[in-house]
Amino acid sequence: MNWKKKVFEDFKLYAVTDIQSESRDALKKIEDACRGGIDMIQLRSKTLPDQSLYELGLKIGKMAGHYRKLFFVNDRPDLAILLSADGIHLGQEDLGVSAVRKLAARSGVRLWIGKSTHRLSQALAAVKEGADYIGIGPVFATPTKPDYRPAGLEFIRQASGQVGIPFVAIGGIDDKNIDSVLTAGARRIAVVRAIFGAKNVCLAAQKLREKIENFSG
Length: 217
Prior knowledge:
Elements: H1 3-10, E1 13-16, H2 24-36, E2 40-43, H3 50-67, E3 70-74, H4 77-82, E4 87-90, H5 97-106, E5 112-117, H6 120-129, E6 133-136, H7 152-162, E7 167-170, H8 178-184, E8 189-191, H9 193-196, H10 201-214
Parallel strand pairs: 1-2, 1-8, 2-3, 3-4, 4-5, 5-6, 6-7, 7-8
Helix pairs in contact: 2-3, 2-10
């Protein structure tokens, strides 16, 4: 088994960026997150122009490979393919899983494909579509998804009993409420602000990973 497949099968902590502007600080924080113990990094920005996203993605992809982390791109299969990313994360309004799978295959690229879901029916539909993993949430209210009503812990309990592929809980999760998320049945956690909004990004990632690994509920 190659290291990338092993990381995907075993991933616990998934860091998602929310980059607002071009700065060296973003790369420094991503490197600190890698050092702190994340397994996967997702390039996500709703504001950067395409060329800036591409150039930043090249740097993140190289960094991820150095630290043996998986590199995912949010929403944009074209960029994921151009960047030779490990995967793509799709929203409910994006191209479907099968269409992205065909596009990647035509380009000679193998992508892991994740999909955001906000209720059980969407989660089960994503499984049927052939997603490799799903995101479930937002679990709690979060400024990165202001238009979405929190799905709550019940969605995690439903997914842990009925979803047969890896799922990652996301949305407003931090070191203060992560225990309740783990107790509900999540074993993979994705965060934005809890890592990248911390004063010490490396330490924040370390603490979250330790909570996941040491959970005994």
